[in-house]
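Fold it.
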Amino acid sequence: MITEMKNDRNYVLCYTREPQEDIIYANKLAYSMHLAYSADGERYEALNHNSGVLFARATDNENGTMNAKSLKSPYLFQLADGTFGVVAVRTEHDGQPDEQSKGSVLLFTSSDLLQYKEIGLINLKGDTFVQDVACSYDTGSGTYIIHWTDEHGSSYRNAMADLFSLSSASAPEQAEALAINSVSANIEGIVPRNAISVSPEIARRLVLKLTVPTNVSIQVPEQVTASSIEELNAVRATAIYSDGTTAGKSVAWQAAEVNWNVPGTYQVRGTVHQDRYDFPTMQHRADPNIAKWNGKYYFIATNDADHNQTLYIRESDTISGLVKAAESLILDTKTYDHIKGLLWAPELHSIEGSLYIFHAATTGEFFYEECHVMKLREGGNPTVAADWSEPMRVVKKDGSYLCEAGKVISLDMTVIQLNGECYAAWSERQFLPVDIGAWIYIAKIDPKEPWRLISDPVLLSKPDYGWANNHTFVDEGPFAIIRDNKLFVTISSAAIDATYCVGLLTVDTNADLLNPASWTKTNYPLLTSRSVEGEFGPGHNSYVTDEDGVIWNVYHGRPGVQAPRCSGLRRVHFDIDGYPVLDLTDEKDLNPKLTAVSIEVVVK
């Protein structure tokens, strides 16, 4: 639990980490800026599960490939306008010197230490690699002073009147040795850098955004007027969390002593309830999806048990009933000549009253994997294979196939319906002539024939951060949550091993979804192997809303580092800004010591 903020000033420490085993906390993860908080400047506590919050972007090559980059020696400082800057040494992904950054340091800015903008490389006009760096604003001269040490141990200073004019630094001058006040912190793997004091407002937001909230109280109305048990059961509790956010909870009211035919006032006890699911929930099921259709819930997923050769569906009246529901085969690799294997990432979507399954399949080898769509016949039963159409391959607006078979694959197509428009988002990976990694695209689709695009694809995201290109360059698995005036699209990144993780794209609901500038990509992932103990490589998630309006995260993870992929369910919370929280575990979601409640029931 983060120390309570009592002082007028609070402190934030930036640091990197020593890498661990490659499958646990690899170089690309360790060589990023991490943050810790202190109320007194002495005792620091790691934020964000001791994971990085600021990563260097990869650089682009002319052929579309990327060069993964990392950073070392980050230094946090305040800009003249009171916002924040970070200077750091950009390195190759493994921490080795980056030839492109020779004689330069990387500059970032941030207004809140949560979202960062990479400005670019400041040219320090030295033909040597930078090993260490610091920066400060000199109010007397109105200039920024960059103090740095090169690979030979020599120290220099540069002055800049305009930090954002990246080539405007003065010539380097010999300077005294760079010394950064050391900070001692009991944080696993820490390579400490510098600490700065920040306002209580900045500190509060940092702590509330980068720690998981906990349930601290439960509220129910003191009195309610009801004429039946059904009316009483509609009365819900409000769970209040350590960050001030709330969530509604159902209550099991013990109303046996209430005589609904006799007016009066009754004291009724109840127990606050929240569905909970032990992980793993479904074994050997990856890329899981749950959807509601005609009053029932359906579960579908990639079947790892048979190496992705079949798609099965489950049906139940409730989400919890899906856990042990029978499975019905709806697609295999023998029924159709063009569907031969690797049935991946199926999703159920209702569009204009019709039910569809979006999934990936191949005519043969992996390099022919492409997005397909199946439609349920009118009046059909989702659990009956014969009621589903033959899979139709997704086509572009000119009628040609979405991707050129054997050169580019497509997968993980999802549907976003907003403001009367219908969009598809998916992952696409070019392998020939060179492998450029998997990128996320979006386009409008025809709601009457949703396997047809009606606009050109637009690039939304590529795996440019270290957490997204760890072991492989992959952004995939997009899925949307629409809440208030925000559209959130979570994506899954990196290899599908224990380093798999969930990132976030955000856009205003009234913005142009086909304009990449409308979107914001969060610098750090929302869900990683460090988020929930015992769950490794969480990702490829979707969302479903239950009968009480609760949104559930349906995801896969591994119960061990090398364990098989399995499905799980956890409630989606929303933080102080209304952004999704995916790591609120059951014990933090509902404190069992607070579940006993009572209410005065007036029967008239």
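The radius of gyration is 27 Å.
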